Automatic annotation (TrEMBL):
Classification of source organism: Bacteria, Pseudomonadati, Pseudomonadota, Gammaproteobacteria, Cardiobacteriales
Similarity remark: Belongs to the NlpA lipoprotein family.
Name this polypeptide is given: Methionine ABC transporter substrate-binding protein
Pfam families membership: Lipoprotein_9
Species annotation: Candidatus Ignatzschineria merdigallinarum
Predominant localisation class: membrane
Keywords: Lipoprotein, Membrane, Palmitate, Signal
PANTHER family xref list: D-METHIONINE-BINDING LIPOPROTEIN METQ, METHIONINE-BINDING LIPOPROTEIN METQ
GO CC list: membrane
Membrane recorded as keyword: yes
Length: 288
């Protein structure tokens, strides 16, 4: 009886000019619109987190056009230092980053806590090079000459490996990449003066130092060629730059579309058509 009174009360709430049939149609329309709203509720805005680098050019020229064709609005949030990107990804300030390598992924996940980051796609990666304005050949090295290396552990360990490869310094057989320190560098064929420096400043500092080991993304971003380096890093897989997202987002449509964009023939063609990318290490899946 109570249910009948409630139904009667609900019907009386509708204006008199609406018949029961019209009310039914309106209710069904509302259900349909709600369903459409759920479908339209899929994420269509993507934010990339990037530092000043060649990877900005890759995203702007090769990835954004692909995603825009799929109906996404894509923006780039720039960070002055790469170390600021992982926390932003963890906090949800950005959806995807192009900065992380597998060499420091586990350590960053442990140190930062929160939702875990994961490697999501490969992208052309720039090797480090030894560069100089004062000198024309690596054989010009002498005791006491100043060599600048990056000031973050992962990049500085890479730089030390390159210096070891040309014989200038020596390193212990076992080194923890995530905690590497300049004090672990020992003399090799010479005893150079090793200084640590913010990677983004190295090219501008070249007139004042003898040599610098420069991350390749800053080289190409400055319009210089990787091949112009006095020595080029044979980058191990663990140091190649990767596209990263949060693990919890791996089943999202937008995340899969990002992955698809990086694997696309359009992105490969864009990269290979621009001479500035010569010397970069391409994903193994790309055609030779």
């Amino acid at each position: 009886m109570r249910k009948k009174r409630l139904l009667r009360h609900l019907w009386l709430k509708f204006p008199a000019f609406l018949s029961p049939l019209k009310v039914t149609i309106l209710l069904m329309s509302g259900i349909f619109l709600a369903a459409c709203s759920d479908e339209q509720g899929e994420k269509k805005e993507i934010v990339f987190g990037l530092g000043p680098s060649i990877y900005v050019n890759q995203v702007e020229g090769g990835i954004i056009p692909y995603l825009e064709k799929k109906g996404y609005q894509v923006s780039i949030k720039m960070f002055s230092q790469n170390s600021m990107i992982p926390p932003a990804l963890k906090e949800g300030a950005v959806d995807v980053s192009v900065h992380i390598s597998t060499a420091n992924l586990e350590e960053m996940n442990r140190r930062l806590g929160g939702d875990a980051m994961m490697v999501w796609a490969d992208t052309p990666s720039a090797p480090q090079t030894i560069r100089s304005i004062r000198h024309q050949h690596i054989d010009d090295i002498r005791d006491g000459m100043t060599i600048a290396i990056p000031n973050d552990p992962v990049s500085s360990e890479r730089a030390a490996r390159l210096l070891e490869a040309v014989g200038w310094i020596t390193l212990a057989p076992e080194i923890d990449v995530s905690t590497f320190h300049v004090n672990e560098i020992k003399p090799g064929s010479v005893t150079p003066k090793i200084v640590e420096m913010e990677s983004a400043l190295m090219l501008r500092a070249l007139p004042d130092i003898d040599f610098a080991v420069v991350n390749g993304n800053f080289v190409t971003n400055a319009g210089e060629r990787i091949q112009e380096g006095l020595a080029i890093e044979d980058s191990p897989e663990e140091h190649l730059v990767k596209v990263a997202i949060l693990e919890k987002n791996q089943d999202e449509t937008w995340a899969k579309d990002i992955q698809e964009a990086y694997k696309s023939s359009e992105f490969e063609a864009f990269i290979k058509a621009d001479p500035i990318y010569e010397g970069l290490i391409f994903p193994k899946s790309w055609s030779k």
